[in-house]
Design brief:
By secondary structure, this protein is an alpha+beta fold. It has helices at 7-18, 61-71, 106-111, 142-158; strands at 27-28, 32-37, 40-45, 48-55, 84-85, 87-90, 98-103, 122-126, 129-136, 163-171, 184-190, 198-201. The protein has one domain (7-201): Multidrug-efflux Transporter 1 Regulator Bmrr, Chain A (Alpha-Beta Barrel). The protein has 4 helices and 12 strands; from the N terminus they run H-E-E-E-E-H-E-E-E-H-E-E-H-E-E-E. The longest helix has 17 residues, at 142-158. It is globular, with a radius of gyration of 16 Å.
């Protein structure tokens, strides 16, 4: 059973609030909409470079702070990296830890992503691919995510498409955003591809 605490999201939203910014103030990972049907979309994403760290079943508080430290200059280049949206997360499944990832800004990725200075932060790649996505409002919790995933899988099946077993979800908004206006999403990679990341850069020993 998948269990993900909302602590990490609360920390994320608090950090965005303290920065005094809203969703529109941040660079968002680019994608192309292939099909839209109400709350559902099929999107094509390019390869994304991510700063990633493990997220256990007990929550994402420490995970967020590790990544926030990385973009705040706690990396080998001591370079500050702009915050982006969304924050991608993969839930823990049984004994496997989940994952939290910040998207590296496009220009930073092109110029050369600074290497992490911590062993528990990695620079990874999210392979390009086609995803089915469901968007929903509210203050996201485990129940909402599970219900959204079930709806999305039903929609995919009804369209005669196939998706992998792994799910990832995303959060976009600071805490002052009213629940009805919040943007939350659940993703499933189509064509039986797995939602996975490839480690491309690790901190030096």
């Amino acid at each position: 059973m998948r269990k993900v605490s909302g602590i990490g999201l609360a920390v994320l939203l608090a950090a965005l609030f303290l920065a005094g910014k809203g969703r529109a103030d941040y660079e968002t990972a680019a994608y192309d909409v292939v099909e839209k049907e109400g709350e559902f979309e099929i999107r094509d994403y390019p390869e994304l470079v991510l700063a990633s760290t493990a997220m256990g079943a007990s929550g994402g508080n420490g995970s967020f702070m590790r990544l926030f430290g990385y973009i705040s200059g706690s990396n080998q280049a001591k370079q500050k990296v702009s915050m982006t949206t969304p924050v991608f997360m993969q839930p823990s499944v049984e004994q496997d830890a989940g994952m939290m990832s910040f998207v590296v800004p496009k220009q930073v990725a092109e110029d050369g992503t600074p290497a992490p200075s911590r062993q528990d932060v990695n620079i990874t790649k999210r392979p390009a691919g086609r995803f089915a996505v469901i968007r929903f409002a509210g203050r996201m919790n485990d129940t909402m995510r599970e219900e959204a995933e079930q709806k999305l899988r039903g929609w995919i099946e009804a369209k005669g498409l196939k998706a992998g077993d792994s799910m990832e979800y995303a959060s976009y908004d600071p805490p002052f955003t009213p629940a009805p206006l919040r943007r939350n999403e659940v993703f499933l990679r189509l064509q039986s591809d797995k939602v996975a990341t490839e480690t491309v850069q690790e901190p030096s020993p």
